[in-house]
Amino acid sequence: MKVFIVEDSLVAYENLQSVLSDIPGVVIIGHAVDEMGAINGIDSLMPDAVILDLNLKSGYGINVLKNIKELHAAIKVMVFTNHANEFYASRCKHAGADYFFDKSFQFSHLHSALLAISSCMADTGATPAPANAGLRPRSKQPERTHHPAKKRSDEVP
């Protein structure tokens, strides 16, 4: 499965690379830090899935999402943001996001969704419909997962 990442934070991008490296068949084919780079890269590389941050170096992730769904509706879009509240979740759902994850504590949810999509593609060549598109912000305690490049304040040294 070909994945394109739209993320302007180097730390978050490196964490995503680590998460994706654990999934058989997943290949990162491109990366952009701004709206125009994302739109151009996705148009030319045609990934199967896009991991999309909303807050970019220049431009807006929501515009990237709208462009993807207008021109390439089959591409799965996973919004992965620190702006995981009802306002952004609703806007992203309306724009066509397939998934919506809180960057601060839902790495494992992102991993599970990518694993399911990759597995389905390997078995059938098709992508699954999201079981629970994750389009509601979560109100649970942060997961206790370790991401080497990201030190959490609640971790014990």
> Gap between N and C termini, in Å?
36 Å
- Main sheet attributes: strand count, strand direction, barrel closure: 5 strands, parallel
C-alpha-based Rg, rounded? 15 Å
CATH-assigned fold name: Rossmann fold
Strand order of the largest sheet: 2-1-3-4-5
The level 1 CATH classification is Alpha Beta
Number of domains: 1
Q: If helices are DSSP runs of H or I spanning 4 or more residues, what is the number of helices?
A: 5
What structural category characterises the helix and strand content?
alpha/beta
Low-pLDDT segments? 128-157
User: Which H/E pattern describes the elements?
Assistant: EHEHEHEHEH
> Helicity range of the residues?
25-40%
Give the overall form. Answer: globular
Oligomerization:
single chain
The count of β-strands is 5
In terms of topology, how is this protein built?
Layout lengths: L1 E5 L3 H12 L5 E6 L2 H11 L3 E4 L8 H11 L4 E6 L4 H10 L3 E4 L4 H18 L33
Parallel strand pairs: 1-2, 1-3, 3-4, 4-5
Helix pairs in contact: 2-3
Explain what you see.
Helix content is about 40%, strand content about 15%. With about 160 residues, the protein is of the alpha/beta class. It has one domain: Response regulator (Rossmann fold, 3-Layer(aba) Sandwich). The chain has a five-stranded parallel beta sheet, sandwiched between helices. Strand 4, helix 4 and strand 5 form a beta-alpha-beta unit. Helix 2 runs parallel beside helix 3. The model is unreliable at about 130-155 (pLDDT under 50).
